């Protein structure tokens, strides 16, 4: 069902399990470093409207106010916003609505759901595998010129690489849909840079650009299922035509409105700043361990590491009470890779102590 445009080695790895996700790694009694969802008490500005919305469940959901709030946040008209039941629904809508594309290309390693949705809809998918020796950075010239659907994450899960917006912008062209998955964009920060660095969410000048966003990660809303798409109104109309009626529930709409407000944006930026500090601490501790190599320049809520025999290390970590994300289910990686979620310094230090013992054994 798919082809592969491999890296310089030309080696095609064994077919990974695209349906495997981080939540499968966790279990009772395990410290969760496998799922990239922030776990913190819900602030009142978010909890209060979500709770209040429960009084309105007898009425069908009205996406209008939430759509307008999200549009205002990103400087777009409401017609350029489509609310979805999580970012994952957006990938399914794309796969179903764009059945006429001839050459869909997915840039890997990245979140596997975009390719899984395409394949489930009968698309023949090609992969561009980014090179670990180059820090998994995007080389725009490697994208086939005649690809009429290109999908890439920014920052990318699981590599944590943040690609320059200018490089992504070069991929946009008439006749192509460029899908940029920004599910983790709100986790990024850069010194002296306001807002989300390298985000294309406000770009209305790029033909065929479709930005996928999620409210799951920073606000701990994985169970509520809320995300949205940003793009040209005509393209979103095509996607909306294959979306079920009332796809986004009333409490999720209340969350979308709250998370688009100025108080939420200020809080998000503060969280991203703290995350940067916590991530730097994790990277420093990991880099000091023998045989452990941190991939690229991490920019998000997780870090990808390479260590020979990582699959055995993961099993031993699990035996000792720690869950991390296996890497072999991501195209372009393999059993020697692990993804580790960024947590507070105390959790990181406790984890590193256990990991060091395992590596020294």
TrEMBL record:
<keyword id="KW-0032">Aminotransferase</keyword>
<dbReference type="Pfam" id="PF00155">
    <property type="entry name" value="Aminotran_1_2"/>
</dbReference>
<dbReference type="InterPro" id="IPR004838">
    <property type="entry name" value="NHTrfase_class1_PyrdxlP-BS"/>
</dbReference>
<keyword id="KW-0663">Pyridoxal phosphate</keyword>
<protein>
    <recommendedName>
        <fullName>Aminotransferase</fullName>
        <ecNumber>2.6.1.-</ecNumber>
    </recommendedName>
</protein>
<dbReference type="InterPro" id="IPR004839">
    <property type="entry name" value="Aminotransferase_I/II_large"/>
</dbReference>
<dbReference type="InterPro" id="IPR015424">
    <property type="entry name" value="PyrdxlP-dep_Trfase"/>
</dbReference>
<feature type="domain" description="Aminotransferase class I/classII large">
    <location>
        <begin position="53"/>
        <end position="355"/>
    </location>
</feature>
<dbReference type="GO" id="GO:0008483">
    <property type="term" value="F:transaminase activity"/>
</dbReference>
<dbReference type="GO" id="GO:0030170">
    <property type="term" value="F:pyridoxal phosphate binding"/>
</dbReference>
<keyword id="KW-0808">Transferase</keyword>
<feature type="region of interest" description="Disordered">
    <location>
        <begin position="1"/>
        <end position="21"/>
    </location>
</feature>
<dbReference type="InterPro" id="IPR015421">
    <property type="entry name" value="PyrdxlP-dep_Trfase_major"/>
</dbReference>
<dbReference type="InterPro" id="IPR015422">
    <property type="entry name" value="PyrdxlP-dep_Trfase_small"/>
</dbReference>
<comment type="similarity">
    <text>Belongs to the class-I pyridoxal-phosphate-dependent aminotransferase family.</text>
</comment>
């Amino acid at each position: 069902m798919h082809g592969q445009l491999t890296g310089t080695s030309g080696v095609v790895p064994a077919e990974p399990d695209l349906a495997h996700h981080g939540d499968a790694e966790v279990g009772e009694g395990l410290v969760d470093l496998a799922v990239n969802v922030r776990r913190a008490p819900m602030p009142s500005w978010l909890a209060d409207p979500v709770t209040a919305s429960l009084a309105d469940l007898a009425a069908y959901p009205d996406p209008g106010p939430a759509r307008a709030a999200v549009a205002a946040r990103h400087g777009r008209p409401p017609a350029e916003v489509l609310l979805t039941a999580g970012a994952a629904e957006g990938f399914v809508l794309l796969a179903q609505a764009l059945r006429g594309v001839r050459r869909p290309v997915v840039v890997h390693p990245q979140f596997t759901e975009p390719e899984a949705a395409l394949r489930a809809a009968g698309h023949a998918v090609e992969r561009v595998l980014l090179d670990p020796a180059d820090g998994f950075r995007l080389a725009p010239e490697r994208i086939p010129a005649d690809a009429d659907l290109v999908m890439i994450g920014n920052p990318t899960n699981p590599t944590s690489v943040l690609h320059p917006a200018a490089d992504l912008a070069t991929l946009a062209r008439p006749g192509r849909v460029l899908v940029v998955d920004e599910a983790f964009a709100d986790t990024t920060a850069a010194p002296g840079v306001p807002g989300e660095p390298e985000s294309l969410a406000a770009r209305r000048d790029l033909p065929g650009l479709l930005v996928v966003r999620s409210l799951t990660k920073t606000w701990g809303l994985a169970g509520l299922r809320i995300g949205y798409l940003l793009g040209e109104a005509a393209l979103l109309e095509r996607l909306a035509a294959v979306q079920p009626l009332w796809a986004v529930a009333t409490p999720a709409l209340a969350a979308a409105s709250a998370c688009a407000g100025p108080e939420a944006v200020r809080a998000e930026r503060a969280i991203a700043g703290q995350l940067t500090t916590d991530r730097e601490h994790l990277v420093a501790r990991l880099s000091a361990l023998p045989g452990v190599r941190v991939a690229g320049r991490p920019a998000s809520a997780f870090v990808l590491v390479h260590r020979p025999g990582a699959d055995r290390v993961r099993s031993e970590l699990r035996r000792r009470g720690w869950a991390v994300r296996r890497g072999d289910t991501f195209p372009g990686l393999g059993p020697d890779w692990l993804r580790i979620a960024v947590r507070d310094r105390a959790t990181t230090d406790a984890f590193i102590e256990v990991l060091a013992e395992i590596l020294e054994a």
